[in-house]
Structures are given as structure tokens and as C-alpha cells.
Amino acid sequence: MPHYSFVLNGKPVTVEAPSDMPLLWVLRDLLGVTGPKYGCGVGVCRACTSHLDGAEIQPCVVPVEDCASRRVTTIEGLADGEKLHPVQKAWLDCDVAQCGFCQPGQIMAAVALLKKKPHPTDADIDRIENVCRCGTYPRVREAIKKASAEG
Amino acid sequence: MDGSSPTPGSGPGDGVRRQELPRRRILVYALAASTLTVATPVGIGVAAEGGQRGEDPESALRKPSDVVVIGDDDEMLVLEVTAANRVVVRLPRAEVGQGITTAVAMMIAEELDARLADVDIPLAGARAKGNQFTGGSDSVRSLYGPARELAAVARAKLVTAAARRWHVPARTLRTKHTMVVAPDGRTATFGSLSAAAAQVHTPAVPSKPKPASQHSVIGRPTPRIDGRDLVTGKAKYAGDLAVAGAKPTVVARPPTVLGKVVSVDDAEARAMPGVLAVVRTAHGVAVVAESFHYAFKARDALKVKWAPGPLAPLSDRAIRSRLRAAVPRLGAPPHGSAQVEGEFEFAFVSHAPMEVLTAVADVRARSAEIWFSSQTPGDARASIASAVGLPQSSVRVHVVRGGGSFGRRLAYDAAIEAALISKAARRPVKLMWSRSDDIRHGRMRPASHHRIRASHAGGRVVAFSHAMASVGESSESLGPRPQGGMTTTAHVDARKVSAGPMPSDSGLYNFGAIDQKGGGIELAIPLGAWRSVDSGTMRTAEEIIVDEVAHSLGKDPVAFRRATLRSKAAKAVLDKVASAGKWGRPMPKGRAQGVALHEEYGSCVACLAEIDVTDPHHPRVVKVVMAADVGTAVNPRGLQAQLMGTAIDGISTILQAGLHIDRGAVREGSFADFHYARQRHSPLRFEAHIMPSRKAPGGAGELGVPAAAGAVANAYARATGTRPRRFPINF
């Protein structure tokens, strides 16, 4: 079986996995990194949203071979040690989460958006596809604006 | 402890001493332990009886919930103060996002004068007896009295222990920040006093909860206690647990609802990499593998011949016509009255919690251990024990944080299935339903049909009739117990709900003679109580008719409601949304406001929605203003979150989210076609106003659904000039 090396949350890792194994299961089942969640397995609900070289991906539809020698960041790698990322901080300030299951994906999607557009409009925020079944959307919007305003 | 022995027949058992507080109905026990541990029984309705509601002049108008809640009164709510100064309350409820752990932590911190950060609320595993039911928007109501009593007793014992240590009068001591403080400034943490406090039988200070006027934690908007875990990915759900040896497991399921395996060729699947076991289940074939990747691949390689399920010939059209035919006839309207009538249809709706059903099961020859999120762990344990052939006492059920529920985790289908697979495969398993399993195989809110008639004469409604029929779950679909139907009390409870008194029995409006009739058809389809249960359809439809009555009388929908609402509290929430939402302000073409109310669980709520239908295929609710009176709002921030969730439920179920049945199968299979709202469907502005109150808490988690759904439907009707009758509208 092939081996793939990549940088996960700042640390080099090597996994033995079939080339078509989705990154989600590499993370969850092989590496024990459970922040990215399974919600649909087909890139639709986006609960697993993480970053590949800083850009948003849905690990449930990205095969591990596409990650070789690249940087993968999950929700676990967003904070700097105990110091939360400004978007995580905004999330806490706005008390966004309810059940929390989609929130790692929501936060990673928001971080990716703010990277592209530091001052997103409502229309930009509307383009976030991540499903939240608890309906936290208004607080997601509020937290993104707060994080944007605070830089 | 007054030196008394336990009262025969009512004490919790050996090692437990009982302390009765004569003035109060709630008993608090001290458990024999080396650190301070106290426990109290949690009874449904205890808080309401012991609280201030009886003194409320409006109490006659505020009825308890119509949702039947099961359980008896000898459940134990247990508080422990550890030597490390942690206050630990093992909670006999499920946390599925509704924030009950935060609300209970606040009650405990309030009475104990502990820092909220020092309070831990782990979820209790299934217990042998008692009320461990999470549902009916009852958790805060049932815990508000007992949790505060419990903490107040613990505080009194800690203060007494400090007084003895310092040889000062107990009444001179104060408590704050998880410490006892002496007049001279000496402090002792609760943790350092816990062992001594455990020996205190008769506290030297009163152990009565504070009056509401002294509350500084209860009523203060407070962020979730688990917020940091939730934003850092540390929070663990069932699928995140690392239970030794528990291997990823998925099940191949039939294309139709409750179809069956005729034959299976699993040779190719078994030979695939990472596959550990393939076992038959009652309605499918399970694959256990080293990873979910291997499990899904092997599942797809199974060659299964399926027999169609019992629903196979049926599609929506036939179900709808059978439902229509099952609606009881309305009686004759009052002589001389004019009629406003409407028939309404609601589709099946998936619960679709973000975390699909997941259960870890380790079933051995003489014992079993199961980890999952459950609103009914006691019933689940009994059913699992029966399914795997073990005595209940040999089955441990661990309740894990749930990724949403909306009623779905009342049933424990996946847990029974996981236990049976573990038993058959002779190894621990981590079973996960796929999203399409979740949407295609239930459970779901039943479809329903409603016929409503308001009779008016002389400018007012003189009679109001509502006849409805909904789909009930036939015993055929429940099948043999091991398949995982809700065969015990949770199921009975869910069924009683639809057969019981109707949600609008409370008589929100002065509408003269109220007449309600229910009918139904039975189908072999897995159903389940969905947030707000029957109110989500019944009361929504009624609020649409209320608007149509107002229209036919030439009255404004808010003014008409205001003139006909019975209770002051309901009028107040209506006034609040009308003023905060600027009811009646000029709107551009294609935009309109809608309003609706609901009253249940001892609480009431109003919702004002503003909709933009410029693109009729993509209506957008742009603003939602809600106001709720739930009595004492323990955590207004959490309550606002619950109302926000119900607003999104209302938008989804009215405008776009439902399930089709095509020849015995659910057509939808993911969030790509089950159109629960996303950010682009959610209001750009949301406000939730909490009415101040010192009454005992009412229920809140489900409260907002009918008001939000009704307001969205009424706004849509006004914006489009149509009379919406079938939901979801874009389906």
C-alpha cells in the first residue's frame, strides 16, 4: 500500500493508505483527528470543512493522494496553542454553537472566506454552503462580521 | 441528619441517608461518600408545583404541556464537590445542543455561589429507574426546583463545615467564587471543605434556595459552558470516541423503506482490504472494517437481492388522498355564521440532525456496553438487553453528547442495531448510519392533512373547528423488537402525543366554541416526534386561518389577534414583536410581513417575519423578530439560540424542506435534495426578545416552531397574494 506524507496542523505525518481513501477517513480513522465531522460523505453538508494549503476543502471528497506533500489544517490546528484564532474567539463571543457538530466546518469555512475577503458582504456570507441543522446561521453571520471588524 | 433512618419504601437504598426538609416538597439525600455528595429526586412537574406558578393570577390560563412526559419521581440528580474543587453534577438528561448542561450549571452555580467555570455537568449513564427522559421541552422545568434545592443543601453543609473548622458562627460566613469566606477574610475552597461537609448531618444555616430577587447567575445571558470545546474540535460525539477495538461499521440498506434482504453474495466484499466481518441484520447487511473508507467500499460491493418494503406500492399522491379521506367531518357551523375555511397539507420531514445516528457497542457473552446519544437511555437499555439476551443489569449505556436531535434521539434504532451487529460479529463496533440511511430510512415527522373552519358572525369568530389526520406508524414497521423500533415507552409516548389532546386546546384566542377532531392512517414507515410535535403543523395551519379571518373581516392581523387573544402574556409578546419589528411599515413590492403566535409548555411566543418574494422560486425571509415569555429564563442567551433555531425550522418546513415518498422509498437522500435552510435562506436580521418574568420556568426548546412557521407562511401569503395550503411550498 502506498505511503503519503503531508503536514497536518504544522506537523509532518506519514500514512499508509490506498490512494483513493478520502482525507476525512485518513484523519479520523488513521490519525485520530476527529474535529472534521462526517455529515454526508459527498461534499454537500460541509461539516468536515478543513484547509489544504490554506484553501477550503471538504475532506470527505478529497482523496489522500491529492494531499501528498501539502499542508492540511483542521479545526484542531487553527488555534496557536492555547491562543484561539480570532474567528474562534468571535465564535465564543457570539455564543454561536448549539450542538456544535457542524461548527468546526463553519469556522474553517469562515476563516477561508475572511482570508479571501477580509471584509465580506452579506452576499459573500450567503455563499457559505455549510449546513447547520440547529439554525445558528444568524450568529454565524454575526461572528464573521465581528471577526472581520476586529481584523 | 436528624438521626433518622430512611423511611421504608421511599429511601433510595443502602448507603444513603435521607434528610427531609419539612417546608418543601423536594427531598434531598446525602449519599455516603468521602466527599460531599448530595442527591435529589427529579420529578416531572416538581418545579411547577413547588414554584411560584400557583401564585400567578394567570396560572389558570397557563396549562402544562400537552406533550405526555413519562418517568417517575425517584430519579437521582447527584451533586458532588471534589477535593480538587470541582462541582460535579451528573445530569440525567441528554445534551443535544439545547444547552441544558449550561442551564443546570447556572442553577448550581447560583445556589452554591460557585464560579460557573468550576461546575462540570457530565451526562449520567442509563440508570436502573427514574425519570431520565429528555423531551417535551421539560428539562429546565423539571430540574429548576431540584437542582437549586440540591445546591442549596450542599452550600449549607459546606458553610457548616467551615464554621466548625474555624470555630465561628456559621451565620457569619459568606460564600462566593466556590469558597467559604469568613468575616476576617479567611477563605476555604469548597473542595477543601468537602470531606468535612460530608459529615455534616444538620446544617447550621438554612438550606433554602435564594429568592429570585437575589439571583445573579440565573437570568444573566451566559455563553455555553462547553463553547471552547465546541470551537476547538475537542468536543467528543459518539463517533469520536476511541473505544478499544471498536471498528467502523456501516449497513447496506434496502432501496425501499423497510425492505428486506432476500439473498446476499458477500464474497467480493469479504475479500476486500480492511474488511473484518459481514453480518446480516433484520433489514440489511452490515460491514465491519478497519476504516469507514473500507466499510463503505465493501458495502457497495455487496450483491444484495432486496424484497420491497411494505410501503412499496405507495407514493405521495395515494398517501395524501388517504390522509384527506381520514380527516373527520366538521360539524355544522353555527346558524347564520359566515365561514373561513382551509385545507392544509404537510409533507413528511426528516429530523436530519447533523450528527447521523452513531453508536459504539461492545457486546460480550455476559455483559454489554453501549455509547450513544439518547433522550431515553433507560428504555434503550431495556430494549438493548432484551435484544441481545442479557439482563438489564449487565448492560451499561453511556450517554454521549449528541450532534442535534430535534426528537430523533428519542428512538435508539442505531444502538440496538449496533448491539446486534457486535454480538453477531463478536467484536466491538462503531456503527454509523450514512446520511442517506438517515434520510431514507427515517425517522420522520408524519405527513398530515388539516381541515380548519372559523365561523364568524357580527364581526367576531363564534366557532372554530379543526379536524386533522396524520400518518401513524403501524406495528408492521416496528417489526420484531430487535430491529430497533421504539417498542417501549418512548414509542408509546410518541404515539400518545398524536392521539392525545390537541395543542390548541389551551384556547389561545376567544373564538367561541372550539371543536377539534383527530384521525389518521397507519403506514409501515418509521416516524418520530419532531420538535414541537403536532403543534408544528396544527398550530401553524391555525395561525394561517387566523390571518384569513382577519382579512375577511377587514382587520389588520395584529390588531385582530390583539383583540381576540385571551392571555395578557400572549398580548405582550405580540405587542413586543409588532413594535420591535415595526409592524405595518411600508414595504416595497414583493415584500411583506407576517405574524403568528403560539402558547404551550406554560410559555408563549410571537414571531414576526419579513419575506422577499421578488423571485418566487427563491423566497427569502430577510428578517425575523421573536418575543417569548417563558417565565424565568434561566439563560436568556440560550433561550435566544433556541428561538433562532425554531425560526430556521419554520423557514425550512414552510418554504423548502420535506420528503417525498415514491413507490415505497424516500426520494431524498442528502442535504442536496432535503433542502433544510442554509445561510442564504436565513434571515439577515434576527432578534429575540425575552420578556422579564419571575414566574417558574416554562418550556422553551420547541416553543417557537409553530409561531415561526405560521409567521413565514403568513408573510408569504401577504407578499404573493396567495393562500398557501401545501407545505413545503417549493417542493
The domain count of chain B comes to: 3
CATH homologous superfamily classification of the largest domain in chain B = Aldehyde oxidase/xanthine dehydrogenase, molybdopterin binding domain
- Major β-sheet profile of chain A: 5 strands, mixed
Q: Please give the order of strands in the largest beta sheet of chain A.
A: 2-1-5-3-4
CATH topological fold name of the largest domain in chain A: Ubiquitin-like (UB roll)
CA gyration radius of chain B, whole angstroms? 27 Å
What would you say the CATH architecture of the largest domain in chain B is? 2-Layer Sandwich
CATH-level-4 superfamily name of the largest domain in chain A: Beta-grasp domain
Q: What is the share of helical residues of chain A? A: 25-40%
Give the terminus-to-terminus CA distance of chain B.
64 Å
Please explain how this structure is put together.
The complex is a heterodimer of chains A (151) and B (731). By secondary structure, chain A is α+β, with helices and mostly antiparallel strands. Chain A has 2 domains: 3-77, Beta-grasp domain (Ubiquitin-like (UB roll)); 86-149, DNA polymerase, domain 1. Chain A contains 5 helices and 5 strands, in the order ββαβββαααα. Chain A has a 5-stranded mixed beta sheet with strand order 2-1-5-3-4. Helices cover 28% and strands 24% of the residues of chain B. Mean pLDDT of chain B is 88; it is low at 1-25, 44-75 and 479-503. The radius of gyration of chain B is 27 Å and the shape is flat. In chain B, helix 2 runs parallel beside helix 3, helix 9 runs parallel beside helix 10 (413-425) and helix 14 packs parallel to helix 18 (704-720). By secondary structure, chain B is of the alpha+beta class. Chain B has 3 domains: 16-226, Aldehyde Oxidoreductase, domain 4 (2-Layer Sandwich); 238-310 and 357-432, Aldehyde oxidase/xanthine dehydrogenase, molybdopterin binding domain (Aldehyde Oxidoreductase, domain 4); 319-350 and 443-727, Aldehyde Oxidoreductase, domain 4. The longest helix of chain B is centred in the first third of the chain and has 28 residues, at 139-166. At the A-B interface, helix 1, helix 2, helix 3, helix 4 and helix 5 of A face helix 5, helix 7 and helix 17 of B. Chain B: The chain crosses the membrane at residues 26-48. Chain B: Keywords: Membrane, Transmembrane, Transmembrane helix. Chain B: GO terms for molecular function: oxidoreductase activity. Chain B: This is Isoquinoline 1-oxidoreductase subunit beta. Chain B: Residues 203-225 are annotated as: Disordered.
